[in-house]
């Protein structure tokens, strides 16, 4: 029995029909007539020497041979699609798709993108604001910016500065709670998006850093960091805000950080792409801009006594 592969068009017709379990729907997907698709599948069955589908009255079912072929056919066309997409990207030096979390996109990236666009008018930049795990080999994404720990095996990774956290609030709320001790009576806002950090970067940890024994459990909880920061801007209370999420609101006076003690997390932002992709002109331009924008506000860290979270975690 020969292992010579049948024509690719016949395998493609089979793959579509196996996914839809309908010749009509598969023909529509491939933009061919049902008769043409049926002919392709019939030729594939003749090449194999046995049927791949049971033709029922108003439906089709895979035979045992069809069930054996379907997964490999699907995987094969997926692999071909990924390879073709990767090859086409090598010729594209103007389009760039970046994925980042919704909070970072809203609070840090979006306010700065005018500057990048002005510097690089030839780059068409697209953003996908999501925390969904992406596969840079499969998904139509060039760069991922993620916060945490990884793992980042098999990827080009640039780790930027660690994040520190400090209480921030509106100027009006700050007037009511002028000391760390008084903050124990303040309405507190919780950013639950960082609950995964170890050791924890929570209110209890910050209070220990300033010598106050207080483990607050009640307050307003948000699953997104930007929503928690926006609540603080609106005067709801104080939030233990991450540097990247609060920096612009601090600079523009919507928030104040009255206590100059911050805790430094073990997590950090990473710039991620496939190995070799970092040398593509638009990716390199975005990476350099991203790092330089972070460095522009590095001096603000000098205003705080930044304590590594490991130094104030419970024994």
From TrEMBL:
Q: Which Pfam families match?
A: HTH_1, LysR_substrate
- Give the highest taxon in the source lineage: Bacteria
Q: Which keywords annotate this record?
A: DNA-binding, Transcription, Transcription regulation
Its GO biological process annotations read: DNA-templated transcription
Stretches assigned to the HTH lysR-type domain? 6-63
Keyword Chloroplast part of the UniProt annotation: no
Which PROSITE patterns does its entry note?
HTH_LYSR (PS50931)
> MF terms per GO, please?
DNA-binding transcription factor activity; sequence-specific DNA binding
Q: Which family does it belong to?
A: Belongs to the LysR transcriptional regulatory family.
**Protein's name in the database:** Glycine cleavage system transcriptional activator
């Amino acid at each position: 029995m020969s292992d010579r592969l049948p024509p690719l068009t016949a395998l493609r017709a089979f793959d579509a029909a196996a996914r839809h379990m309908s010749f009509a729907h598969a023909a529509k997907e491939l933009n061919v007539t049902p008769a043409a698709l049926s002919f392709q599948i019939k030729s594939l069955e003749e090449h194999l020497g046995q049927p791949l589908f049971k033709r029922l009255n108003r439906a089709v079912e895979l035979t045992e041979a069809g069930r054996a072929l379907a997964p490999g056919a699907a995987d094969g066309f997926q692999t071909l699609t990924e390879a073709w997409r990767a090859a086409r990207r090598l010729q594209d030096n103007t389009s760039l798709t970046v994925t980042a979390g919704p909070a970072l996109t809203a609070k840090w990236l979006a306010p700065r993108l005018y500057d990048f666009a002005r510097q690089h008018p030839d780059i068409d930049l697209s953003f996908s604001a999501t925390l969904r795990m992406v596969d840079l080999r499969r998904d139509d994404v060039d760069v991922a910016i993620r916060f945490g720990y990884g793992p980042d095996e098999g990827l080009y990774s640039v780790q930027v500065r660690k994040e520190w956290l400090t209480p921030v609030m509106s100027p009006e709320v700050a007037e009511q709670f002028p000391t760390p001790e008084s903050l124990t009576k303040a309405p507190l806002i919780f950013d639950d998006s960082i609950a995964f950090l170890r050791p924890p970067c929570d209110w209890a940890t910050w209070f220990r850093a300033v010598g106050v024994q207080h483990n607050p459990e009640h307050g307003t909880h948000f699953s997104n960091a930007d929503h928690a920061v926006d609540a603080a801007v609106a005067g709801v209370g104080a939030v233990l805000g991450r540097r990247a999420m609060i920096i612009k609101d601090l600079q523009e006076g919507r928030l104040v950080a009255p206590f100059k003690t911050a805790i430094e997390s073990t997590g950090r932002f990473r710039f991620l792409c496939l190995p070799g992709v970092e040398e593509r002109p638009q990716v390199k331009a975005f990476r350099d801009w991203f790092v330089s924008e972070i460095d522009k506000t590095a001096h603000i860290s000098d205003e705080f006594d930044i304590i590594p979270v490991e130094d104030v975690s419970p024994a």
